[in-house]
Structure formats: C-alpha cells, structure tokens
TrEMBL record:
GO terms for molecular function: ATP binding. Belongs to the ABC transporter superfamily. Residues 4-234 form the ABC transporter domain. SMART domains: AAA. The keyword Transmembrane does not apply. Keywords: ATP-binding, Nucleotide-binding, Transport. This is ABC transporter ATP-binding protein. Pfam families: ABC_tran. InterPro entries: AAA+_ATPase (IPR003593), ABC_transporter-like_ATP-bd (IPR003439), ABC_transporter-like_CS (IPR017871), P-loop_NTPase (IPR027417). It comes from the Bacteria.
Length: 290
C-alpha cells in the first residue's frame, strides 16, 4: 500500500497569493479526485507534492519518507502530467518516449521498446508514433502526456486536468485506463469535471482559495444532502427575490426558462425534491464555505 500524508501545508507565492492554506490530506491506493474552480490551488498542490516548488510550512510524506527534504525519493516512483507541458521538441513520439524512458532509468532497450509500444497502443497513438509531437493536435498531445506519465511503472501518478481538451470518446478511454492502473498505485487527478470524479474516484477533496473545504467518499458526501435539494422553474425577474429567501446552489437557463436548485432543510413551497448528485455537493460546498 502506498500512502501520501499532507499535514498543514501552506504555500504563498512571491506576489502574496496564498495558494495553499494549511492543507491536510491522507491519500492511499486508488483514484483520488481534486475538484475545484479556476485558481483554487489544485496545480499549486500538485507541483508542491512533486517537488517543483517548496512550501513555506507543513509536511508531506510518501510511504513514510519526507518529500520536502528529499523530493527525489518520490520522484523515482512518480508519473506526472502537468497542466502545461511546455514546448515539445521536434522529434517523433517514439523517440521522445524513448528519451524519457532512459531518464526514468529503464536501461534495457528491449524493455523500453516493449513498454513504449504498449503505452502508445493504450493511448491510441500507435498510428502517429513516427510523427513529431510538436505537430500533434491538443488531444493527441494530452494522450502523449499520459503515455509519458505511465512510463517506468510508477507507484504514484499525478495528473493535472488530464481530460481537458479530449473529445468524449478519448476522455472515456483515458478514464478507463486510469481506473485500471489505479488498483495498486495512487492516482491523483485534478479536474473541474464533477462527473469524472463521481465515476472514477473512491476518495475526493474539494478545494477553493487554497483550502480543502470538504473531503471524503463521493457517495458519502452526496448522502449528506439527501432530502435537502429542491428545484423549481421561476420567472427570470424573480431571481433576486429567491436568492434572498433561499440558499441557491445553482441556476440554469433551459430553453429560456430559469431553473434554480436550492439547499433547504424543509420542503420549500412550490419546489420539487431532487435526488442529490455530486454537482450539488460541489456547488453547495463552494457557496457555503468559500
Ligand atoms: N507562479 C505563480 N506566481 C504567483 N501566483 C501564482 C502562481 N501560480 C499560481 N498562482 C496563483 O495561485 C492561485 C492558485 O493557482 P493554481 O494554478 O494552483 O490554481 P488551479 O486550481 O490549478 O486553477 P486552474 O483550474 O485554473 O488550473 C491563483 O490565485 C493563481 O493566480
Ligand atoms: Mg491548475
């Protein structure tokens, strides 16, 4: 079993932005989803775990070893897909993977060949293996990024918004791949897509403003809202009046009609009960705790 323990982790950038504020998390094998809006601190947390930046205070350990003191211990077991991969060199997908595999310490040519062939197939890039990565489409680059993260049998995979830019079919393939490999390792996935977390992750956290606002199992967090989520259609002009009276957790324009979803303990007049979903958890947490 692999374990990441994060204790009171705080990081402030030079411009004064508090990107992480006393973050506490305990993560073991399986998929862990990190949900949060733009600027929540997801990438900051991931970059700090992988040792790309040092926090001002707090601790991170991986399998009992101090990650902040010695990032190399975690890095040898790490597959990382950053949000911005940077500039791609003008070499083929195969050559670039071969180069990265050497850096990861896969010294035997036959082993590299076998792994690279397998991974290119898994991310559906076999036909493009001799094309320059610099000429790939956004989705192809993303899939290449996934393949490089999987090189060298990592024990921990950290992927920052991996499905951004993938079409629905590729997103599905990718999610299934992560799901398969996460059985024996830690996979930390950041996303804005509530659905991905709902379907894939056994454990999750919701972040905003550098803080972890909720964490637990998606099903449990949803269960806590049972009987408290209501919706109705209203006139567009009445929205402010409803906002004063109820805790509106989402508003949606459907075919020019306004639909609101509210959190209330008791049945509000004129509303229909809704079966709670992870989206409600997400919006409710962001509304009340941000
Ligand atoms: N290098 C940096 N220097 C200064 N501020 C930064 C830096 N990187 C991020 N920030 C700020 O820190 C906060 C957290 O940013 P971060 O990139 O971690 O968010 P995020 O949750 O990954 O957002 P997104 O979903 O948009 O990727 C934001 O306010 C951001 O503007
Ligand atoms: Mg980010």
């Amino acid at each position: 079993m692999n374990t990441i323990s994060i204790h009171d982790l705080s990081l402030t950038y030079k411009n004064g932005v508090k990107a992480l504020q006393e973050v506490n998390l305990h993560i073991t094998n399986g998929m862990f989803g990190l949900l949060g809006p733009n600027g929540a601190g997801k990438s900051s947390l991931m970059k700090t775990i992988v040792g790309l930046q040092r926090p001002q205070s707090g601790q991170i350990s991986f399998n009992g070893k101090d990650v902040i003191q010695d990032p190399r211990y975690l890095q040898q077991y790490l597959g990382f897909l950053p949000q911005d991969f940077g500039v791609y060199p003008k070499i083929s997908a195969w050559q670039l993977l071969d180069h990265l595999a050497r850096l990861k310490g896969i010294v035997h040519a036959s082993e590299r060949k076998q792994q690279i062939g397998y991974l290119l197939d898994r991310v559906n890039l076999t036909a493009q293996r001799y094309k320059e990565v610099a000429t790939f489409s956004g989705g192809m680059r993303q899939r290449f990024g996934v393949a490089q993260a999987l090189l060298g049998n990592p024990r921990i995979i950290i992927v920052d918004e991996p499905t951004a830019g993938l079409d629905p079919e590729e997103r599905n393939r990718f999610n299934m791949l992560l799901n398969e490999i996460s059985e024996d390792i830690i996979v930390i996935l950041s996303t804005h897509l509530v659905e991905d977390v709902r379907h894939l992750c056994a454990e999750m956290a919701i972040m905003n403003n550098g803080m972890v606002l909720a964490h637990g199992k998606p099903g449990q967090l949803i269960q806590e809202l049972a009987g408290r989520i209501w919706s109705r259609e209203i006139a567009l002009a009445d929205i402010e009046q409803y906002a004063q009276q109820y805790r509106i957790i989402s508003r949606q324009l459907i075919a020019r009609r306004m639909h609101i979803t509210v959190y209330e303990q008791d049945t509000p007049a004129g509303f229909q009960p809704l079966t709670p979903a992870l989206e409600h958890v997400y919006f409710n947490v962001l509304q009340t705790k941000s």
